[in-house]
Every structure is written in C-alpha cells, then in structure tokens.
Specification:
Helix content is 41%, strand content 15%. The protein has 534 residues and is of the alpha/beta class. Strands 1-9-18-17-16-15-14-13-10-11-12 form an eleven-stranded mixed β-sheet, with helices on both faces. The chain has an eight-stranded mixed β-sheet with strand order 4-3-2-5-6-7-8-19, sandwiched between helices. Helix 2 crosses helix 3 and helix 5 runs parallel beside helix 6.
C-alpha cells in the first residue's frame, strides 16, 4: 500500500481532477461519505457531534460531513474557525448548502474559542477538520489553545485526513496536535500516520480511496509503501517436492560465548521452510551448535588465533558455499579486527545471495561502498547503531533520519537495507522505501535479530528476490512476535519463541483474506494485524 506525502497528495488531487475529470466537489462529497462510514462503525452511539472546521478543503470535508450527519438525525454543532466570508471554492459551496438547510455555522475566534470548548464538552464526538496536508508550520495562538482544550476533554476525536497539527511527511512532533481516536486518511496513509512517534496521535487509521481506483494512480508512482499481508509471497510447496526443492542455506555465525546466535539463525531459517541448512561456525563451537539445532548440518571453521577466523576458514567456507543457494553471514561472529577482515573477504568473494547481519555489517563500518562490487543480491540488516557505524555518521533517530540513512546505505552498497526497529524500514538502491506494520516491544530481546537473519536467508535460498524476501521476512518475523506477545505477554517473549511461531505466522498470512470492502473506507496497519491474530 502506498504512503503519500504532501507533494504527492497535491499531485494526486491535480491528476484526479484534471486528468480523470472527477470534479473536486465530488471528491469532497466522497470524503464526507467515507468519514461518515467510519463514524457509524466506530462512534455509532454518538448523537451530538461537534465539527471543528478550518477555511480550506479539510474544513470543506467537515462541512459536507455535517450535512450528512444532520440528514441522519444527529445533532450537529459546526464550529468554523474562520470568517464565513473567507471561505472559497468547494468549502464555500458546502457552507452555502448548510446555510440553505438553516444549520448554524458558529464562527470561532480568539475571543470566542473558550465558549466553543464548552460546546465541545457537551458533545459525544468531535470531528477534527481544522487543518489537513496543507499545513506547513506549527499551529499557534488561539487555534493552538483550542486544540489543547479539546485534548484536555474526554470527548473522542475523529480526524479527517490528518490530526490537525500533524505534518504529513515528518513524524517529528514540533507543536500542538490533536489527539485522535481514529483518522480517515484520503487516497492513502501519510507517513506520519504509521511512523513513530507521530502515529500515536492518529489512533486507528482508515483509508478512503474517494472512489478513485488504485490503478488510476499508477502515473504517480509512490516513493514509500506500507507492507500489508497482501504484499507478501510465502513460498508454496508442490506435491512432488523434495528437500532440494527449497534451497540450501549456509549460515556463517557464532563465536565464543555467542553460539546461540548461530542456533537462533538456523532455527529461523528452518522454520521458514528452507530445505537444507549448514551452519559454518568455529570448530570449538560445533558441539554446542549441533545440540542446539539437530536438524542443521555443520561446517567447522578453523581459528587463526585465540579468537579470529583467518585465511583457512575463508577458503573452507567459500569452497563450500559455491553452488549453494544463499549465505547468511554475521550473527554473533565477533568484532575483533581479524574476524572483521575475514568477514569482509568472504562477503566480497561469495557469489551467492547474501544476508549480512550484525558483526557482518560492523565489518564494513566506514567502508560501505566496498559492498557495491558484489554482483549477487545482497541484504543488510543493521539496527540504527550499526547503520550509523556503516555510514560513519550519528545513529539515525527519528523517522526522517531513518528514511534518509537507509536510503543512503542502499545507494552506497547496492544492497537492500533492512533498518530494524519499531516500524522497520526497508530501502532499495533505487530509492524506494517500505515500512513494516507488524511487531511489538516484546521483540526487543537478545537474539531477535539473529532469527530474522535466518528467516531472510531461508527465503533467499528458496528463490525469492532480495526485496520480496526482505518484506516477507520482516512481516512474518514481526507477526510471530505479535503471536508470542499475545500468548506470553510482551515481557516474556524470547527470541526462540519467534522462531517457533514462524510457521503459525506463515499459515495465518497464507490463509488471510482482507475483510470485504464496505463503502469507501477500510482500516490498515494495526487493524490488519489484529485480524491476523484473531
């Protein structure tokens, strides 16, 4: 599902109106109908509704909704945060219709906003139609005081397109913003509705296509996408299959005290369906790995000193990997300089699809461009600290930093970059971005990333391309975490639980059918995940 920023929203508006010939008044009417549908579903018992409307198109959407609510027997209070004479275009048209119906438009100003708040206090629901995607600066003055007053009351808020004060693209909060219980976003979700921390202000997000099919918007290709279950490709199994049909993955992982990383990566790959798996690990760890995952084969790597792997281990691994289907390199390898040099040599010489994780990524700290020489597909799976080291820059924090840093890393390395964290971001070398919608804080536990590295390698070995494997792996890994949290509570989730629940996550995704569309609006993100867990 596409995510659109302010400029893309304007481009879509222009295209739909000018190229498709759909009048802007029709779009506004459809926006009101979609918002009314969500209101009926989520707030059906709300008899008295206060609508806070601005002077622009967002306010016009609210005015149109007020008419529909009045026609359905609800008591409506229209609070117009502008002069009636300042309205233009479709907003003025909608205001004229309300006046013809003898519905009052109460103009709100700096002198009257406190009395407007008293009307809000007596309502069952507030519709926020004050500012939409056109807002370009923080809200100030009495309008900010009005928003703060609404937030201080216990009346639920339904926002149209965006909670007023929330920027469309940036997820960084810079000023006063409505706290919504639900938001109806038009055409597609805006990045700030699904990225932390701003997403917490939007409540449950619904998307209204306004009667414009997705296919008609293909001329405006999006940069960012939200991954949903419909985007996934879980490998299928033909009746005549055998273990060789599902690939042979090699996992190069583990060091003294970190044999568990190799075991967890192996379990993640096997639970994702890879046919054959070999764990290449330092010779001293063979017994621990074999006991930890009896289904895996092992390959001993000779140490070149007290802890490092050296030339003999590299030759052994590269000879073995030749002809295999994929390599996962890095979980728990260790970060001494000798092992880092060894990992760099293996990564650059291996001619199979590669997942570079943890210490494998750290081995290229400050040397990201060296990975661009690889010809086989490559996926990097850093957390923010590892990505900062890779690019020799501060750790990316906010969503804008994460988007930009992941994009820069993908461009420099030629790899698909999976930047882990809440709402994991996937970036491609061509500049596309994908945001994941599954997962929870219970997954912030040791070994979780090792499982993901194994899942990704297992999907690559089964023939999925790097981007498809990354989106599928991250979604399934997060859904397994959601299943684990539902069963055990977030605090009790262990990395091994994620591996064990991957098959259930795959089953739920494979059998998932989105709820039938009813009218114009449908829920996304958390709502989809909740249906998958039900």
């Amino acid at each position: 599902m596409r995510l659109i920023d302010s400029s893309e929203a304007r481009a879509i508006d222009s295209f739909v109106i000018e190229e498709l010939g759909i009048p802007s008044a029709v779009l506004m009417e459809n926006a009101a109908l979609a918002a009314g549908e969500v209101l009926e579903e989520r707030f059906g018992a709300a008899l008295r509704v206060s609508l806070i409307c601005g002077a622009g198109n967002n306010g016009g959407d609210g005015l149109a909704l007020a008419r529909h609510l009045h026609s359905r027997g609800r008591e409506v209070v229209v609070l117009l945060c502008a002069s009636r004479h300042d309205l233009r275009g479709d907003a003025a048209l909608q205001a004229g219709v309300l006046e013809a119906m003898a519905l009052d438009l109460s103009e709100v100003s700096g002198e009257t906003y406190e009395s407007a708040l008293q009307q809000v206090a007596g309502s069952d629901l507030v519709v926020d139609a004050l500012f939409g995607t056109g807002l370009s600066r923080p809200i100030e003055g009495w309008r900010a005081a009005l928003i703060e007053g609404v937030n201080a009351q216990r009346v639920p808020v339904l926002s149209l397109d965006l909670p007023s004060g929330l920027p469309a693209t940036s997820s960084t909060m810079t000023g006063t913003c409505i706290d919504a219980v639900a938001t109806v976003s038009f055409f597609a979700p805006k990045p700030s509705l699904v990225l932390p921390p701003s997403a917490s202000r939007a409540g449950e997000v619904y998307v209204a296509d306004l009667g414009v099919p997705e296919s008609a918007l293909g001329r405006i290709p999006p940069r960012a996408h939200l991954t949903t279950a419909a985007d996934l490709r879980v490998p299928r199994r033909a009746a005549e299959s055998h273990k060789g049909s599902f690939g042979h993955l090699v996992v190069a992982a583990g060091s003294h005290g970190k044999s568990g990383a190799a075991v967890l990566a192996a379990r993640g790959a096997l639970r994702t369906g890879v046919g054959l798996l070999t764990v290449a690990t330092p010779e001293a760890l063979l017994s621990e790995v074999e006991h930890g995952c009896v289904e895996a084969m092992t390959l001993a790597l000779a140490a070149a000193g007290s802890s490092s792997l050296g030339e003999e281990a590299a030759s052994t691994l590269l000879s073995f990997v030749a002809g295999k289907d994929a390599l996962t390199l890095g979980p728990g390898l260790g970060n001494d300089e000798g092992t880092a040099e060894w990992a760099r040599g293996v990564a650059l010489a291996a001619k199979v699809p590669l997942v570079l994780d943890a210490d494998g990524v750290n081995a290229f700290a400050g040397r990201a461009e060296e990975l661009a020489s690889r010809r086989a597909e490559t996926v990097l799976t850093p957390h923010p600290g590892e990505l900062g080291r890779l690019l020799s820059r501060p750790t990316p924090r906010g969503s804008e930093d994460r988007f930009e840093a992941a994009t820069a890393a993908a461009a420099q390395t030629g790899a698909v970059v999976v930047l882990k964290g809440h709402r994991t971001v996937i970036a491609t070398p061509s500049g596309l971005l994908f945001v994941n919608s599954t997962g929870n804080p219970g997954m912030a536990t040791a070994g979780s990333g090792d499982v993901l590295a194994g899942v990704l390698g297992g999907l690559l070995a089964q023939g999925l391309d790097a981007l498809t494997a990354s989106r599928t792996a991250v979604y399934l890994h997060g859904l397994a975490g959601d299943l684990a949290a539902a069963k055990l509570g977030q605090a009790g989730v262990l990395a091994g639980d994620l591996a064990e629940l991957l098959p259930e996550a795959s089953l739920r995704v494979s059998g998932y059918t989105a709820s039938p569309r009813r009218g114009l609006a449908h829920p996304v993100a958390e709502a989809e995940v909740q249906r998958l867990l039900a």
